[in-house]
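Methods, example record. To illustrate the input and output format used throughout this study, we show the complete record for Fructose-1,6-bisphosphate aldolase/phosphatase. The sequence lines were provided to the predictor; the line carrying structure tokens was produced by it.
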Amino acid sequence: MKTTLSVIKADIGSIGGHIRPSQALLDAVRSRIHAHRGNHLLIDARVSATGDDIAILMTHRHGVGDPAVHKLAWDAFRGGTDVARRQGLYGAGQDLLKDAFSGNVRGMGPAVAEMEFEERPAEPFLFFAADKTDPGAFNLPLYLAFADPMNTPGLLLSPELSQGFRFVIMDVGHTEGDRVIELNAPEDMYRIAALLRDTERYVVESVWSRATGEQAVAACTTRLHNIAGKYTGKDDPVMLVRVQKNFPATGEVLAPYAIGALVAGGMRGSHNMPLMPVPQESGVSYFDGPPVVSCAALCMHDGRLTEAEDAFAHPFWDRVRDQVAAKAIELRRQGFFGAAMLPMAELEYTGVTAMLAELEPRFRLREEARPQVAMRAG
Ligand code: F6R
Ligand code: MG
Ligand code: MG
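The corresponding predicted structure is encoded as:
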């Protein structure tokens, strides 16, 4: 029998700015979800926070995109939003972009990652959640974990992994809607890299084992501004990764987060900042960031979840965090300049665009002045 693993996440309000949800808010969402554990809808569930976002991880038998499961998460977030408003939390209901639920939270604001599969006898998997960034933040870690033997020795050591992985990549910037392309590692590695370097345009939707056809990764591809037609906050993605056996080992999937790669989404959703791996429920701080990623490692059997190991709480990551903090401070030294701030099209605020429009009539052409200077010089 197949099991579905669904994670649905939203920013519905936080204390002290975009820092973290209040305990009352987290409790409100948790109690609404936990009431359904073991009933006809859910086998199991776990509610957690990363930065200012609340994620609901659920196991069930209803398949991907199930309206009842999605409505349960939506209602829990709506109920939570009432608590957020009562407490005066900042950005209450921020990611709930529509008033009425219409069958599926996709396209309504929350981030979603889901996959349905036949459970293996041992089913270890990782649940990643990132705050103050967008789905492209997972491009590099996934490329390294599933396509690069410099990161993943399993690609050389395991005959199953050596057969490579199929990447399904979404073009989230196409004007006529979402488009996807399927590319195979290793033979398409350069093509995969050519797409994944552009994190605002191309994002990994899923990754599949070519040895068995099994799904390894389900990642969120939601871009809030594609939904609302304007920027309404960063997209703060989630991702599920099955590990071990025919998939990369847990450590191979975690290793790329030691890089602290620069990602979009820091401070007012408008800056590049290094991605810091953090324990769950640790909030954000410096420069409304830096962008953070958490990872809960679990196993499941018949849909029942074990307790989660907080993968980035291990002391190893303290040193990484120090390095990422130093990188963040170094980048912030250049303020608004160059690569520190996002390009015009990606800015969450419209102030710069308005300022440029206001200056437009004050520009004058130099055409006449140039020849005179040239003649004098001659
Ligand atoms: C992510 C998030 C941010 C905000 C951004 C602007 O958690 O909420 O991307 O959307 O910082 O927020 P305001 O405009 O409220 O300062
Ligand atoms: Mg927020
Ligand atoms: Mg957030």
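Annotations derived from this record:
Residues 2-354 form one domain.
Residues 67-86 form the longest helix (20 residues).
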